[in-house]
Amino acid sequence: MTKNRFAQIASALFLIAMISGLIPIATFSADRIAAGKERPDPAGTYYVPPPKSDVAEPPLALAKTDKTSNAIAGEKAWLGVQVQPFTPYEKRILARMSIQRSGVSVSEVAEGSPAEQMGIRKKDIIFSINYKDVKTPSEFRDAVATLNPGDKIVISLLKNYPIALLTLEGTMGQSQGADKKAQIPSPVKDVKAGTASISANVFAPRGQRAVSSIAVSPDGKHIISGGNSLIPLGVGGDTADYLKLWDISTGKELRTSISNTHSLSLAFSPDGKHVLSGSRKNTIKLWDLATGNEIRTFTAPATKRDGDNLIFLLAFSSDGLYALSGRDKTLKLREVSSGREIRQFTGHTAWVMSVAFSPDGHYALSGSRCRRTETPVLCDKNLILWDLATGRELKIFTGHTGDVSSVAFSPDGKYALSGSWDQTIKLWDVATGGEIRSFEGKNTGRVNSVAFSSDGNHIISATRDNAIRLWDVATGREINTFRGHEGDVNTVVFSNDAKSFISGGSDGTIRRWDVKTGKEIAQFISLKDGEWIAITPEGYYNASPNGERYLNVRLGNNVYGIENYREAFFRPDLVKVALSGGSLQGYRALVDVKQPPKVSIVQTPDKATAEELKLTLRLEEQGGGIGDVRLFLNGSAVMLDNGRSLKVVAKDEKGASYRSYTLKLSPGSNTIRAIAFNTDNSMQSNDTTHQVTASFASTRKPTLHALVIGIQEFRNPKLTLKYAVADANLFAETLRAGATGLFEQVRITTLTAREATTRDGITSALQRFKAINPDDLFILYIASHGTVDEGEYFMITSNVGALSTQRLKSDALSQVQLKELVANIPSTKKLIVIDTCNAAALGDAMQVAMLTRGMSEDTAMKVLSRAVGSTILSAATSVQEALEGYQGHGLFTWAVTQGMQGKADKGKSGFVKTTDLAAYVEDEVPSLAERIFKRAQFPTVSISGQGFPVGKVR
Question: What are the residues facing 561 on neighbouring strands?
């Protein structure tokens, strides 16, 4: 056989193997893939249509042949998407991205369908429906078949162009032939509710931002994290990526800095004031931790190979003067203050992938990987020990058979640690360069990261099999395995006290773990639009204002937002307890909560000619019974039914009950939203909405109603306040002056006498507002004491003497009672101003009680605000003293009234709106507190419901 003939046969076999999917995608570089087989189609997408041989099952058929079909065969509810298996090529793309390798490919999307509205397009790859994996078209069809019209649907998918992992949410539509208006049935006796012994699984959105690097500050108070948007290098272009600063004690995301490039490595300066980040564009950035601002950028000339421009590693010297970075085959030592290159270290024959400074600052250790962009592929897979003073290569550590992904020195500098993609971890003697032992254990994936504990007794490793392992250094024994990440664990680092460690993964989560118990302490999750959430395994969470909207819980076939648990599980205080090492034993867990009923609005017209409307709800039990039912009109609660006095209209054969309500409407468009809780009100249902257009005309301007309460005399004389009555009178006078002429009438009721400000007196006063109209405004102002006990806020009324838990529940006005009273006021525009201060006159006992009895007052106000659909302005958190004695008033009320008099009208519109007032108070109170009292006071501002003007600037 001639050489030419042999070459022709070899080339043909190679092409056959490549087309058949037998050649690993790693054989090709990213730029070759983009230029070759993965060439974009005319639409600009990276996609290869599946060959006929790949289709093992027939695709789902649309009910009609055209794209306008509104149903898919076999569906009870309408989604409008057709799927088929995906190709070996698509599987290899997923393998390169270290994500789920199974799913279905979208072959058709019906126009106007829920799927199209969610953003699903042809050639997208669907991984799961409602957090249940779908691996075949049959599994996809079965998952859709369990859903009903109006059910929430969450789909995890890979967008075809631009390539990105996303979690999309929507609502199932109405299938053809379904009856939209369920009839109220005749009563059915003795129907038992179903049971719901189903464990709850919490799911974060997939694909928002992979965490590829984390670092803990020297004082142990902060975490810095960096990552990318889960788009593979060399494919799909760049995206704006971020550095996130977290408070390790609360789980709160403190700051975001835009890095614009995927942050592959991070390092804190020894003093904790600065952070270095290394990226994929041969760029190192120095950041100011206090401000989040970029101080300096160090950039070297780019090479022709994209892979050679990756800054895989970074390290600060122990004195903070120098930084070490790796790029291509070299290490570079830079002066941090100027960015000047001091020295270059050469010796590796392939990419430098990992680096560490010795504790004494005299040496550096580096690990190498293969250079797969070369032909033939170059690998050295070695560690090299360097002399920083001279740049000389001191020792080479050989033994790994795969890329050396991570290296570390022991705290005493005597040992070196390395993790490799050959699935092993090795311990080395620095003095001799000899291998002491290999930690192989049960690793089933490449090792991405390794770290020593501060005492040198343990090491931690993160691997591609989604696991983290704890090892004993002396024996090499695997002590524990930590699982929870739903993707590669990319980075891991011990806390300074070695009692816990922090990991970051491709699933977009940062997790803190307890070394002793092996349990996860909490997750920190960065979400889109700058939102975030921190959540414990029990389900207690802290979140940004809209962060909870992105976290879901799956119970059987039902999916709920974590916000459905808000009133019982939004507990930043308990998150802090867990993160400080405390136990949450004794607190109920989210998995123990029974499901609320399913709610739907039936037999209710969508047009009205009269002010009153009869509305009927269908409540189908899911095993948790039926508790409170709330109705919202245009964003504000207008009715709260606790079921004590309401008669059920009927029950059907499924045990669903029907309840009817009469609501007052506003002229024009009315959005009605209904939710229901389980029996103990620990979880609310997914909401249902109904739109009603009212054709009657308004005959008058709205009326402003206000209840202003000032309590300074109490049954317990130790609770006496000095400025509460003066504050209440000032607020009432300011409100009346600004509102006169703006409304039809201004009706302000002021309660300041001791006999009028008891719990019963205030309850009666609030109940009198149940007859006002939806377009009227309602304002509640309270100046008194407030506290939180056993997770519930209490307003201290004048009849309160003792402050024990039992007496507070019997004598004070609780959050539950206040919520019910305000929610039953039918106004759609509500504002609540609470100056329930905890002044020094209360004494130490009250302060201690507030610090130990559960959630803070600001948390209680945020929960109340969302529950009643009202903006709430509150004076201070529970651990602060609301400052008094400024201009003869409390500082908070003084600032509020100054804003109402015109200072809050920053836009010079001539009106003071609730949103403007909230912004003014949030800025002005801390400023005044610092300037006048040299103390801290931060008000709580929670905006919910509609914004509206409360006064006119004179």
Answer: 552
DSSP 231: -
CA–CA separation, 857 vs 861, rounded Å? Answer: 6
Residues 6+ apart with CB under 8 A from 774: 633, 634, 638, 664, 665, 666, 826, 827, 828
* CA separation for the pair 130, 428 (Å, rounded): 47
CB-based burial label for 487 (10 Å; 0-12, 13-18, 19+): buried
Per-residue pLDDT band for 103 (boundaries 50, 70, 90) equals confident
Q: Is the pLDDT at 237 greater than 50, yes or no?
A: no
Structure tokens at 656: 């669903």
DSSP state of 223: E
Specify whether the CB–CB gap between 480 and 468 falls below 8 A. Answer: no
Q: Are 70 and 97 in contact (CB under 8 A)?
A: no
Alpha-carbon span 570 to 772, nearest angstrom = 32
Question: CB–CB of 316/323 below 8 Å?
Answer: yes
pLDDT average, residue stretch 281-303: 76
695-720 pLDDT, tens per residue?
A: 998 878 899 999 999 999 999 999 99
Share in percent of the chain as helix, strand, coil (round to 5):
20, 35, 45
433: left (phi over 0), alpha (psi -120 to 50) or beta: left
Residues 6 or more apart whose Cβ sits within 8 Å of residue 784: 709, 710, 711, 712, 721, 724, 757, 795, 796, 797, 835, 836
pLDDT band of 615, cuts 50, 70, 90: very high
* Structure confidence by residue, pLDDT tens digits, 454-496: 999 999 999 888 899 999 999 999 999 999 888 789 899 999 8
Task: Give the count of beta carbons closer than 10 Å to the beta carbon of residue 561.
Answer: 19
Q: How far apart are CA 714 and CA 159, in angstroms?
A: 63
Cα Rg, the chain, nearest whole Å: 32
Task: Give the start-end residues of each E strand in 738-837.
Answer: 746-751, 777-789, 792-796, 813-814, 829-836
What is the C-alpha separation between 680 and 676, in angstroms, rounded?
11
Residue 322's H or E segment, with its range, is strand 322-327
CA angle 904, 909, 915 (to 5 degrees): 45
Q: Which two tokens stand for residue 132?
A: 């249940």
Q: What is the rounded distance in angstroms from the CA atom of residue 752 to the CA atom of residue 756?
A: 7
pLDDT tens readout for residues 177-230? 444 444 555 444 443 444 444 566 777 765 556 788 899 999 999 999 887 654
Q: What are the tokens at 836?
A: 């329930």
> Residue 62: its pLDDT value, please?
41
Give yes or no for a contact between 233 and 309, defined as CB atoms under 8 angstroms apart: no
Task: Mark 356-369 as b/e (b = at least 16 C-beta within 10 Å).
Answer: bbbeebebbbbbbb
